[in-house]
Amino acid sequence: MAKKQEINPKDGKRFVRDVLQSARGYGVNEATLIEKVNELGDPDEADEAAVRSWVEFNQGRGWVTYRYDEDSEEDLWYLTERGQAKQNQSLK
Predict the structure, then answer these.
(1) Full-model pTM
(2) Predicted confidence band at 1 (pLDDT cuts at 50, 70, 90)?
(3) Contacts 24+ apart (CB under 8 A), 3-10
(4) Confidence at 43, pLDDT banded by 50, 70, 90
(5) Angle 67-73-77 (CA atoms, 0-180°, nearest 5)?
(6) Residues whose CB is less than 8 angstroms from the CB of residue 39 and which lie 6 or more positions away in sequence, other chains included
(7) Which of 27, 36, 85, 92 could form an S-S bond across to 19 if both were Cys, CB 3.0 to 4.6 Å?
(8) What is the largest CA-CA distance in the chain?
(9) Angle (nearest 5°) at CA 91 between 18 and 31
(10) Could you say which DSSP state residue 29 is in?
(11) CA neighbours within 13 Å on the CB side: how many for 77?
(12) Cis check: omega of the bond before 9, within 30 degrees of 0
């Protein structure tokens, strides 16, 4: 079986926002975010470190943020209003 190619970082950064946009109003935990980014990149894939770096890239630009969820006792990621505007701009 051939080794899968890595997801292009430019696509990966967008995939992070795509996943969070599809979960509007709901937070996404890190494990689910990694899983869904890899589903979007299929047949290519990315490791946890790559996805984390793409999340940090988006967070640094104010496109994503996280909040600690008391019920699940974990950080949940969300698309910000700026992130939504970036997504809308990407569709034009």
Answers:
(1) 0.89
(2) very low
(3) 4/43, 4/44, 4/45, 5/43, 5/44, 5/45, 6/44, 6/45, 6/46, 6/50, 7/37, 7/38, 7/41, 7/44, 7/45, 7/46, 7/50, 8/44, 9/50, 9/53, 9/54
(4) confident
(5) 30
(6) none
(7) 36
(8) 43
(9) 5
(10) -
(11) 26
(12) no
Higher pLDDT, 82 or 1: 82
Residue with tokens 């994503």: 64
Q: Which amino acid is at 67?
A: R
Assigned token pair, 71: 């019920």
Q: Is the pLDDT of residue 90 over 90?
A: no
- Average pLDDT of the chain, as a whole number: 92
Length of the chain: 92
Reduced to 3 states (helix: H, G, I; strand: E, B; else coil), residue 74 is: strand
Q: What is the pLDDT of residue 67?
A: 97
Owner of token pair 């470190």? 49
